[in-house]
Amino acid sequence: MDGSTCSRGTSHLPAERALHVGRHRISRPPPSRRSHAHVHRARTHRLRGLATRGAAHIGSHRGADQANAMVTATRLDVARETTFVATTDGRGRFRFDSLETGRYAMRFVSQLLDSLQFGGSAPIVDVAPERAARVDLAVPSGTTLRAMACPGVAFPDGTGALLGLVTDADTDRPLAGAHVVVAWSDLAMDSAKAIIANDRTAKVTVDASGQYRMCGLPTNDALFLQVQHQGRNGAVLKMKIADAAGVLVRDVSFSASGAVRPATDSASTDVVPSGTAKLYGVVRDGDGKPVSGAQVRVLGTAASARADDHGAFDFSGLPAGTQEVEVRQFGFGVARGPVELRNDKRARLDVHLEKAATLAGLKVVATRPRYPEFEQRRRDAIGGRFLDEAQIKKMHFLSVVDYVNLLPGYRAIHQRYGDMRVTNMRDPDCQPAMLVNDLPVASLMELPPPEMLGAVEVYVTTAGAPPNHRSHCGTIVFWSRR
Questions:
Q1: Domains in the chain: how many in total?
Q2: Is 255 exposed, middle or buried, given 0-12, 13-18 or 19+ CB atoms closer than 10 A?
Q3: Least confident residue range of 44-48, 207-211, 234-238, 259-263
Q4: 328 lies in a domain?
Q5: CATH number of the domain where residue 191 is located
Q6: Residue 78 is assigned to a structural domain of this protein
Q7: Of 49, 472, 421, 394, nearest to 195 (Cα)?
Q8: Segment 400-435, tens digit of pLDDT
Q9: Residue 116 gets which letter from DSSP?
Q10: Do 241 and 300 fall within a single domain?
Q11: What are the tens digits of pLDDT across the range 204-220?
Q12: 177 and 244, same structural domain?
């Protein structure tokens, strides 16, 4: 999840402090022939270290690149190997608190490295009595990972690779022939203070093994991925390729029963996807305490509820496949990320929210933003472009026609008898739905004058537009200054 973490599983996962990770035994050795008293006297010791990216950065602040990663310590000098697991904190640090004296092979476990078939080295460390051992681990640099993901491809600065596996959520088999579409958008202003929208998309076909690979996508920018198959569209998933890593692995599942067909005309009504999958869990803070009242939503569906006094939430009637969950609560960072759902099955998702700020000693005068609906849709950012009050002030509009003509994809045209209307540049006969303060209007005469314009939302398609006012010609929402 962006900014916070989620734990998935069928059983409750206890909350732990970021650095105190404990140990988990993956395999157990055979029963010992030693006496019970001898086993009881076995001494345990501490092993700690730092996981970083690139050998040149061992022990440096670049270890933050490896937050929430898995590190294993495998005991070698015993009859049967035993592996212990720790998870790195936000700075890439890890610690094993209770290892017995002996020799251990250390390894960094990563879905990304596994997908690239990177074995890497396994440093050996000796854990001795009376002192704490330390070992620092490094994974390949972003440049190396890019070359492994896309051999022979020259990556311009600020680009990376996205790859993964697409499966059928109903059969768990590779979904060969499906399409993976990734979209992103750059919104800038030229020297004439006109809005320049650079909408980009990339599309690849899933191969026979279910794999997809995209090379040259922008890094550190919001990307929106969707699986499309046999005329149906899956959930829109938001992600970002960190430039330091250069490569992101994202596996996705798709269910035909939970996907929807895109609207084809203005009279079409967007169908909300549904199914028989269920999702439940608990929202907690960094100390493991329940966060009551947190808003939990499965994006793109009708599922939305507040966590109860115990931080618990429970949904049913959800579509199968990879879905996007978002959790919000005042005073905490937003948690957003994917969850795997299956029809007729109940999945668990435990969410940990990180506090955004300490409000003790402050008097909260007002918490409601000036344009709450505008801010909500901008945060969701499934589609659309947004201009806030600060951006509008810098543009010094002189008239309503002035700011309408600068909206990406639309123009104001003159009609007979001095009237004017807004048209879609791709189809001059297509007139978008226009709203002022979320209420429909029919004429430019009803739009606020430039000095009273507070915010603008522009949707060229139905994606992200207000549900009750979506049009295949697009939707424009104007907000009066408050």
A1: 4
A2: buried
A3: 44-48
A4: yes
A5: 2.60.40.10
A6: yes
A7: 394
A8: 777 777 777 787 776 554 456 787 777 777 888 888
A9: T
A10: no
A11: 999 999 999 999 999 98
A12: yes
